[in-house]
Design goal:
Blueprint lengths: L1 E5 L5 H4 E5 L9 E10 L2 H8 L10 E2 L4 E9 L11 E5 L16 E5 L3 E3 L6 H4 L5 H12 L7 E4 L5 H13 L2 E6 L5 H7 L3 E4 L5 H9 L4 E6 L3 H10 E9 L20 H6 L3 E4 L2 H7 L2 H16 L9 E3 L4 H8 L8 E4 L10
Parallel strand pairs: 9-10, 9-12, 10-11, 12-13, 13-14, 15-16
Antiparallel strand pairs: 1-2, 1-4, 3-5, 3-7, 3-16, 5-6, 6-8
Length: 352
């Protein structure tokens, strides 16, 4: 089979190689998946650079998030699945947890409790993006912060993939959103998507606008994936006893100096108003969640996408050979389209 392998840590286009590898064999409780489509996330690229929360042992097949495919074989004592079934594989490594197989290859082995059957009406493009961003949005809003109907939720990077999903989910649940964007041009788009209020940091004061919108009661819950000064302003804007959940650091996207990866909080605001700031990382959630909890959350996401509550934009397909173009698109500013590696099932399996 073909596999896209990083020979060492470094810039993806420098270290990735297209190789031929033997098709793996599933062990007990595992399935062999014939991959149909798998996304290229920016976080996948940070893993290859050695700048993420975990690092594989190199050489390593790329792609540590998700894919869609069909079950080609089952290991012994693997129950609840059948050969030929179309499934989403959520192969995000649990932390702590065992290593997992990368998805940028034609076949991979995955544990059965990380596999979720998907209905025919979900396209490969939507299905292969089911297990990271929609799951993150669901967990942030409902399980981590438990935001209630009519409650305000403040979020940064509202135009990001997760930000858009948070808006859609909040609208479905009756939650009111205050959405922070960098560019004035994005305001109309976020409003059309269902955002209740939009703050543009290009020409508006975030703290002042939150106070005007939420009134004396303020905002008690917020999520941030920007960090830096914007994350600090969100913390300052929270009402007393407010909670800020940080799940990304887009403001430091290309930053390599660990000392610069900061959120400069105002100590008086945090102390005297007893505010809470904590992190969220999907890998650690998976490290503490049971197999049943994981599959339950994935099934909930699958239902929301199938019912069109959550909309996943179509991805742009690339063959493995065009990995340089796919990597460039994954990190292009405001590209709005997720690059996907797609595999032609008509290839004879003996071709490798």
């Amino acid at each position: 089979m073909r596999a896209l392998v990083a020979v060492a840590a470094g810039e993806p286009t420098d270290v990735l190689r297209l190789e031929s590898r033997p098709v793996p064999t599933p062990d007990a409780g595992q399935a062999l998946i014939r991959v149909k489509a798998t996304p290229v996330h920016a976080s996948d690229l940070h893993v290859l650079r050695g700048r993420y929360g975990f690092s594989p042992e190199f050489p390593a097949v790329g792609g540590y998030m998700e894919c869609v495919g069909r079950i080609a074989d089952l290991g012994p004592q693997t129950e609840g699945l059948k050969v030929g079934e179309r499934v989403v594989a959520a192969v995000i490594p649990a932390v702590p947890g065992p290593p997992v197989a990368g998805t940028w290859q034609e076949y991979l082995v995955a544990d059965s409790h990380r596999l979720l059957p998907v209905p025919d009406q979900l396209s490969d493009s939507s299905a292969c993006q089911l297990a990271v961003n929609p799951l993150t949005a669901l967990l942030l809003v409902t399980r981590e912060l438990d935001v209630q109907p009519d409650e305000w939720l403040l979020q940064t990077a509202a135009g990001s993939t997760v930000g858009r999903l948070v808006i859609q989910l909040s609208r479905h649940l009756g939650i009111r959103t205050i959405n922070v964007v960098r560019r004035r041009a994005a305001v109309e788009e976020i409003t059309a998507l269902g955002g209740d209020e939009v703050i543009c940091t290009e020409d508006e004061d975030l703290v002042q606008r939150v106070a005007e919108i939420a009134g004396p009661a303020g905002v008690r819950k917020a999520i941030d994936c920007v960090a830096g000064p914007v994350g600090a302003q969100v913390s300052q804007a929270l009402a007393p006893r407010g909670e800020l959940l940080v799940y990304g650091a887009l403001s430091t996207h290309r930053q390599t100096d660990p000392a610069a990866l900061t959120i400069p909080l105002q100590a008086r605001s945090v102390i005297y108003e007893t505010k809470t700031l904590r992190g969220f990382w999907l890998n650690r959630w998976l490290g503490s969640a049971s197999s049943e909890d994981t599959l339950d959350a994935l099934a909930q996401v699958r239902g929301l996408v199938a019912d069109r509550v959550l909309s996943i934009p179509p991805g742009q397909p690339f063959p493995l050979e065009a990995f340089a173009e796919a990597v460039a698109l994954a990190e292009a500013p405001a590209h709005g389209t997720k690059p996907l590696f797609v595999f032609d099932e008509r290839r004879d399996e003996g071709d490798g």
